[in-house]
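Meet my pick.
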Amino acid sequence: MLQPTPPLEETVDEHQENHVDEQQEQSYHLHSINSTIAIRLLPSQGLSFQLWPAASALVTLLDNHRRPPPDTPRRGQTTALSALLPNERRLRLLELGSGTGLVGIAAAALLGARVTLTDLPHVLPNLQFNVDSNAGILELHWGAVEVAALPWGDIQQMEAVGRDEYDVILGSDVVYHDHLYEPLLETLKFFLLGSEKKSVFLMAHLKRWKKESAFFKKAKRLFDVEIIHRDSPIDGSRVGVAVYKFVKRGSPIEL
């Protein structure tokens, strides 16, 4: 399953010769907790081993939620995530198509949450490497991360991950290949509609093509879908990353 996505290109050869064979490392400073996480990238191994705009945008949104901008009064301050990420108790998060694990690892550290990162089996070793590399920061901020295989739409794997455990499901740049629209929707139905727990899916997405409207059209038949945040356009794009909230239709979220 291809989850992280390339910027503004319809087709990408996962093993282009111009990919760098050596591993790379990218650091992200989380300002609200004054900590830096390091992520290993393996570009020559495919798209799931690289970073794309929506992941970075979602991490920034989570970081700003933890610490509002300095010119904003702290007391009474709310963010786009305030109603979805209460701080009265420890949250349980699931990330779909984790890729390098940036979003889930950052969320665990920023929120002190228990997070399960998921992707296809061949992606898991690098995911686990990145979790282990940031173990000290996670421990310092009461975050806990585990890694599990989860091909979208695979009922046995979804049941193994667990249905009624998660407050929030995360995803970034997961709407890309149209043949994965249906498996992704089946996965969301399992976790959002089949669970007794009221859960929300937060999805960071950079719009690229008209074909994506087919996914959102189907999604809106099943869920209440709302844009809760939109970034300014990035270089080379007419639109910025948007963060969507998916919930069961007619179901207010009270986490």
